Amino acid sequence: MELDVGNKSISRKLKVENEYGIHARPAALIVKEAARYTADIYLEKDGNRVSCKSIMGLMTIEGFPGSWVTLIATGSDAADALDSLEALFVAKFHEA
Amino acid sequence: MKMREITVQRLLDQGADSLKLKVLAGEDYLSRKVQETAMNRPGLALTGFFTYFAHQRLQIFGLAELTYLKNLEPAERRSRLEAVFKQQIPGVVLTRKRRAIPEILELAAAYQVPVLCTSMVTMDFVNACTVMLDELTAPTKRVQGTTLELMGIGVLLRGDPGIGKSETALALIERGYSLVSDDVTEMRRTSQGRLFCWANDMTRYHMEIRGLGIIHVPSLFGVSAIRRQTELDLVIDLTMPTGEEDRTGVLQETVDILGVSVPLIMLPVRSGRDMANIVEVAALNQKLKELGHDAAKELDDKIISRLNGVGRGQ
């Protein structure tokens, strides 16, 4: 990933607002969205950092409803990636 | 490597069954931190000698300490105990299910020190508790990667998302090897500098396979296909081919994890290449190296000695 032009890492704090938190379905949505970008995207919570391109990783971070997580992205399309992932969080993963 | 601090509460939670620990007094002060894995028997301190007193350790009152205290006059007993409690100790454990001396309970409240008891014999407790404290305070790390055990060799597969870690692991499980964790591996470094890997409680023994979704490995392949924990012997990075790969295996690369240097192999992935087979051989080769037999180095030595022999006309 050294080839990326913008190697600055950007981050954003987001709240988990859907009813059941980050369970399998939201995790899959995040992975699907993250996979569209070449940037390295991570989600951090309580000092644990997992790749947003890993379903198993996302299911271990215990993103319970109401908790805050930090998205961190590095790469040329990092900003776009964060925007689209934030939209997913805001849309409550299209759940109730 | 700095050890992690743990609270007396954590020790109590983990040791309620195995160490038979119970709280006798000072429930409100269980948040006190244990900063050393060793324990102290405060015999000398009870006689009034405090030079080199290990105040940051758990203080163990066994048969000897309690019998000694019982033989003192009440006023003397209280002042001796108070001198110990004054030292900002993290906690007190009474062994052998001894009844607490009332002074200990009073001082626990006065100096905000938790007092626990166990039915274990002192020596057994100290041994078991040291091992547990060592585990609880060991530095840990969560790493991205799939861990397997192949013939006693713990292998961590790393690589970019989608490169085929889980697929390779699945092929190895089908060959009879065991899954420890998929995609997310928890690691602990022991005080002896050994690394142990296990799975996150939430996702343990589950795998995500592209196109299939989430599967439960023991349900599909039986309990022999899983292992709760393994010691890490080898890290294999699955990479896109760069042409820069080591072709001889003479240069052993390593990766630093929690301050431990672990052998590292970079395996380029190409379609049609049987990655499971190569990982299997890499693990076998690692086992051979650990037995003191390094094939690459031996061949190289043979060539070097031949070349030099020929060069000198022998």
Principal-axis shape of chain A equals globular
What is the SS-derived class of chain B? alpha/beta
Report the structural category of chain A: alpha+beta
**Helix coverage percent of residues of chain A?**
25-40%
Q: What is CATH's topology name of the largest domain in chain B? A: Rossmann fold
The CATH homologous superfamily of chain A:
HPr-like
Using the coordinates above, name the CATH class of chain A: Alpha Beta
What is the domain tally of chain A? Answer: 1
Sheet with most strands of chain A: 4 strands, antiparallel
Q: What share of the residues of chain B lie within helices?
A: 25-40%
**Oligomer state of the chains in this structure:** heterodimer
Averaged pLDDT of chain B = 91
Rg measurement of chain A, Å: 12 Å
What is the terminal-to-terminal distance of chain A?
A: 37 Å
Q: What is the CATH fold-level name of chain A?
A: Histidine-containing Protein, Chain: A
What's this entry about, in short?
Chain A is α+β, with helices and mostly antiparallel strands and 96 residues long. Chain A contains three helices and four strands. Chain A is 31% helix and 25% strand.
If you had to describe this structure to a student in words, what would you say it looks like?
The complex is a heterodimer of chains A (96) and B (314). Helices cover 31% and strands 25% of the residues of chain A. Chain A has 96 residues and is of the alpha+beta class. Chain A has a single domain (9-94), classed as HPr-like (Histidine-containing Protein, Chain: A, 2-Layer Sandwich), CATH 3.30.1340. In chain A, strand 2 (40-45) and strand 3 (48-51) form a beta hairpin. Chain A is globular. Mean pLDDT of chain A is 89; it is low at 1-5. Chain B has 2 domains: 6-137, Udp-n-acetylmuramoylalanyl-d-glutamate--2,6- Diaminopimelate Ligase, Chain: A, domain 1, CATH 3.40.1390; 140-293, 3-Layer(aba) Sandwich (Rossmann fold). Chain B is 34% helix and 28% strand. In chain B, strand 9 and strand 10 (153-159) form a beta hairpin. In chain B, helix 1 crosses helix 6 (122-137). The longest helix of chain B has 17 residues, at 295-311. Chain B is elongated. At the A-B interface, strand 3 and helix 2 of A face strand 14 of B.
